[in-house]
Write a structure and sequence with these properties.
The protein is an all-alpha fold and 72 residues long. Helix content is 74%, strand content 0%. The N and C termini lie far apart (98 Å).
């Protein structure tokens, strides 16, 4: 194989590797952003669940707040 062909093949492989590295970096950044978003959403859900638990039984129409029907 001529040296010129080998150099072209190596250069082509190096270029492909650079593109793959760039794509991997971009995907890593996107994954980190998604993990942060998921973490934030999970914290929000936990906070809302706590608020709902705190409100359970406090609104006027809740079964806990009403006396039992007369037939009991």
């Amino acid at each position: 194989m001529p040296a010129n062909d080998l150099e072209r093949r190596i250069e082509s492989i190096e270029i492909r590797l650079m593109h793959l590295d760039a794509a991997l970096d971009e995907m890593t950044r996107a994954l980190l952003q998604q993990e942060q978003l998921t973490r934030t959403q999970a914290e929000t859900i936990e906070r809302l669940e706590e608020q709902l638990r705190g409100l359970a039984g406090t609104y006027p129409g809740s079964p806990e707040a009403e006396p039992p029907p007369p037939h009991y």
